[in-house]
Amino acid sequence: MKTSLLRLFLLIAAAFVAAGATLSVPAPAGATLTFRRVFKGSSPEFIEITVREDSDAAVYEIRQLDEDPGPMPFQVSAAWRTKMFDLAAQLKHLQGQDLDVHRKIANLGEKTFRWESGTEVHEAKFNYTLNSAASQLLQIFEGLARQQEHVDLISRRMKYDRLGINDALLQFESDLNRSLLPEPQRVARLAHARSDRRRFPLRGHRPPAGQISRRAHPPPGLGKLFESIFVNMCSTAVRRGEFE
Fold first, then answer.
1. Which of 5, 28, 72, 191 falls between 20 and 30 A from 12, CA-CA?
2. Distance CA 40, CA 206 (A)
3. In what order do the strands lie in the sheet with 57-63?
4. Residue 123 is part of a domain; what is its CATH number?
5. Same structural domain for residues 112 and 53?
6. Whole domain around residue 208: which residue ranges?
7. Which residue has the higher pLDDT, 106 or 228?
């Protein structure tokens, strides 16, 4: 009798311990979708972007292979995330997917899609694909990468080479006109946030002669030009219905 009671007590205690352990384990976070491209000899050689299903917060890394790794944060809107994860669902979350065309074509860089949800992980690698859903997903990821390259370039020019801003704007305009950027308005926000009187002297500003170099102080009116170009380009794109 005593042995039976002891066994019952131990079973109940074990059940409570197991229940407590189960409750202490956090629920798995929302799924993530990662794109990686490694293309030695290109510029950039390494691109990696990770997008979360349940948050605008995303991370990207764009660099040469010999540079130190350093993921940077950025944001992807809910509308684009929904489209990306819908495409991943069409690809069965990459489970058992062979996306490569398996033909003798030029090396276009090794591309990887990776889907993660809790302990479940699936990925697919390819050089070139004819799969429609995979091609659309690739186009979005590559567009996000180009978008962040513009952000980085404009930020560097504004900080270190203000006379080079016009060239950066022309590159941005070229991609904008070809509808290559998923969310160009995010680049436009950078313009509004950075183009102010303190950083970009407007018309009428005259720096003290001989104290500050021409490179540090662009010609008068550049700040206003910088802002107006961004506003006009993005407003035109929105009116045309090129971006949602």
1. 28
2. 47
3. 72-75, 57-63, 46-52, 32-38, 110-117, 120-126
4. 3.30.1560.10
5. yes
6. 161-244
7. 106
